[in-house]
Amino acid sequence: MKVAVVNKVGQNLDIEERGTPEPGANEVVLRQDLTGICYRDILTRDGFFPRLHTPIVPGHEVSGIIEKVGSGVEYFQVGDRVTSLIYVPCGHCYNCVSGNENLCTNKKTLGENIDGAYSKYVRLNQRSLVKVPKEVTSELAAISACVTGMLVNALKRVGGITEGSRVVITGAGGGVGTHAIQIAKAFGAEVTAVTSSQWKVDSLYKLGADHVISSEGEFNKKVKEIWADGANISLENTGDATFNEAFRSLGFGGKMVVVGNLKPSSPPLQLGVLILKGNTISGNISSTRKDIMDALEMSAKKKIKVVVSEEISIDQINEAYERIKEKKNVGRVFIKF
């Protein structure tokens, strides 16, 4: 089978031929027909993550059918349709036993220190697996951990979204933002989408955004024109370019949930405003199995539709990375096998 591999940090991925993996204890081998490309994968190639081991197969957006089962696997069998967390939780630390396995202190991450999803067959630990309802497409299953499940975590568990919440979403035209609009609307929120690309505006309205504004300049003023009391939640998905304006868009008691741009930076922050308005800023990492199940249930009920920018072969991976970096896509790019 063809596999995309990071052999040297900062260089293009290599396409290699490898045999089909065999499952170890507590593992399964999954057959995929597609996998998603996340911007995190590009950061992996560029050496952003200190735990990165090379050579490594990137990718963590998994969807497929179990082909082989190793010893000790208890809850899954050949033929089960599953997706996966983007990591393998240890299962015994404080966060794991309290249902917050996304915060596991001992986790191993797909595509970072264990081989990931850029191949037709993928070896996975049973602690990472979640069964997929038959009504859910492969594309929606693949993004249920890193995109839709993560957004359920960010908006519901962290942001506290409720019916009627006023939500600002930055980076609204990307692979995360396009699905964030839909999930926020499914929770009954009013959404203002923020984008730097004028050509994406019509698409964002079609996805359900109530308002679409440009990220240029002091866009918090545009938000306050829409909602005099400001936003209840700012979903910050871009980084330095929009961080301060997303924060300033909040009303009293508003929460900013930071989900995008993992690069180390020091964006400006008005501490006086943070205190006097009683705002909260929280980071959000990935999803739990419960978040994935919630996202899959929403998908099965047709509350979320996948936004596909393009489908590529694994041989086209390096060119696709460049298009993603240049923001030339609306939605997710998938590798088809």
From TrEMBL:
SUPFAM superfamilies documented for this protein: GroES-like, NAD(P)-binding Rossmann-fold domains
InterPro entries: ADH-like_C, ADH-like_N, ADH_Zn_CS, ER, GroES-like_sf, NAD(P)-bd_dom_sf
Keywords, sorted A to Z: Metal-binding, Oxidoreductase, Zinc
GO BP, sorted A to Z: small molecule metabolic process
PROSITE patterns the UniProt entry points to: ADH_ZINC (PS00059)
Gene Ontology CC terms, in alphabetical order: cytoplasm
Highest taxon above the source species: Archaea
Cofactor: Zn(2+)
GO molecular function: adenyl nucleotide binding; alcohol dehydrogenase (NAD+) activity; anion binding; zinc ion binding
All copies of domain Enoyl reductase (ER), residue ranges: 10-335
Family under the similarity heading: Belongs to the zinc-containing alcohol dehydrogenase family.
Name the UniProt record assigns to this protein: Acryloyl-coenzyme A reductase
Organism: Cuniculiplasma divulgatum
